Amino acid sequence: MVLSTIVNLACSAVFPSNKDVFVAESQHHNIYRRQILALIGMVLFTLVYVIGNRLLDISPVGEIELVVTFWTGNCLISYWSLSGKALHYKDPGLTLLFIGWSILFVSLSILLSPELRFVMMLAYLALLPFGVLGMGWRPFIATCFGVAGIYLSLIFYFRNSGYELADWRLELLVSLSFVLTALAIGLIGREMVLLRQASSKKSREIKAALARIEELSLRDDITGLINRRSFVRALTGEKALHNREGKAFVVALIDVDQLESLRENNGEWSTETVMSELGQLMLACVREVDQVASLAVGHFGVLLTGAHLLGGSQVIERIREAIEHSRFDNNTVQLTVSVGMVEYRPPESIERLLDRAGYQASTAQQQGGNRLAADDAAG
User: Fold this and answer.
1) Rounded-to-integer distance, Cα 66 and Cα 267, Å
2) Collapsing DSSP states into helix, strand and coil, what is residue 246?
3) Contact, 284 vs 349, CB < 8 A?
4) More confident residue, 88 or 47
5) Distance between CA atoms of 141 and 131, rounded to whole angstroms?
6) Confidence band for 218, pLDDT divided at 50, 70 and 90
7) CA separation (Å) from 188 to 121, 128, 193?
8) Which has the closest alpha carbon to 276: 260, 298, 258?
9) Fold of 228-375
């Protein structure tokens, strides 16, 4: 937990909050996070190397120079990567360069302090799993065998130099075990990456499906227009805007006059086709900021934002006339509509607003239909 917190703080410190770097951060944050973790690991193994030499009373020539050179190179690599200068590279984390540089350090530390070879081999194992995440599977395998080859070369060098080693067969078994262990760790890491990618993909698919479900829940299946729930939500938003800024709006409820005869004479399929075409016609008559909703079969609602009753009446009257002079379902159906329209008057509720509009629509229908009835009284 502490280590994770340190890494997160380091990542936050490295990335400024400007827009371009923020995009880079979102794309490469995991790469940088792994690199910082690897750096922390190498700090610890450097301490192990230095402390181990002291505990075993080893004074290798060039120890200080090796540590200073290694960390100078590490700082340069880390700066180049974490500063964003490597963003255009195929591997922005410079994984191969970092691992190669670290392998060189571990190998030279073994060369200078053969007594610590088994301890420092664990540094190899700590480094290589980061490789499978940044280099890919095949380069990782090649690196594993390359490290094993380096270690065996060091063993043969020690043997030819007269350094007293354990049985060479044991050293060979150690090298083989190292390769198998590194491959096993890498394989597990690889599987975790694949599982994470699959999980991320599934999560994106679920989010897209939920968004689609949410969209469908707010739209009418027949017309594709927003449904009653979405219409009420839009009215609630307009009411809040009016209360905050005084912005006017009007609501019209539009009822098809010949709905029952349409159903009886043409059937449900034709009725649905007519409703869909009727909805698209009304949608084409209003602005993008306005709303047209399908409240039920043959019943529609229109929200005109920023409009008063007089100006809104002109828009709704054009809609009524367009419907009257149109033909639907392959020019086989002619319709008229009755419209009730009201302007919002605070502090009435949305329910009261719709009731007033509904009353006006009923009045228009009772007066023979094919007409607009409007009322601006709060009543």
Assistant:
1) 89
2) coil
3) no
4) 47
5) 9
6) confident
7) 19, 12, 9
8) 298
9) Alpha-Beta Plaits (3.30.70)
Contact 262, 367 (CB under 8 A): no
Q: Cα–Cα distance between 79 and 74 in angstroms, integer?
A: 8
DSSP string, 136-185: -HHHHHHHHHHHHHHHHHHHHHHHHTT---S-HHHHHHHHHHHHHHHHHH
**221 DSSP 8-state letter:** T
Cα dihedral value 346, 347, 348, 350, nearest 10: 80
Residue 4 has φ and ψ, to the nearest 5°, of -60, -40
Task: Pull the structure tokens for residue 349.
Answer: 């509720």
- Domain(s) of CATH 3.30.70.270: residues in the chain: 228-375
Instruction: Give dist(CA 218, CA 103) in Å, integer.
Output: 59
Say how far apart CA 204 and CA 206 lie, in whole Å: 5
User: Residues 6 or more apart from 242 whose CB is under 8 A from it?
Assistant: 248, 249, 344, 346
How far, in Å, CA of 255 to CA of 271, rounded? 14
Helix (H, G, I), strand (E, B) or coil at 223: coil
Q: Which residue has the tokens 């410190």?
A: 13
Question: Which pLDDT band, with edges at 50, 70 and 90, does 163 fall under?
Answer: confident
pTM more than 0.90? no
Starting at the earlier edge strand, list the strands of the sheet with 372-375: 291-296, 299-305, 249-256, 337-343, 372-375
β pairing state of 372-375 and 337-343:
parallel
Q: The tokens of 328 are what?
A: 């639907």
Token pair in block for residue 359: 């009353």
Q: What's the rounded Cα separation, in Å, for the pair 166 and 76?
A: 38
8-state DSSP, 277 = H
Instruction: Report the candidate in 99, 142, 149 with the shortest Cα–Cα distance to residue 124.
Output: 99
- Residue 116 structure tokens: 């610590």
Distance CA 228, CA 339 (A): 17
| CB 187 within 8 Å of CB 199 | no
Collapse the DSSP code of 372 into the 3-class scheme (helix H, G, I; strand E, B; otherwise coil) and give the result. Answer: strand
- Give residue-wise pLDDT tens across range 288-306: 999 999 998 889 999 999 9
Q: Write the pLDDT tens digit of every residue in 309-350.
A: 989 999 999 999 999 999 998 888 889 999 999 999 988 999
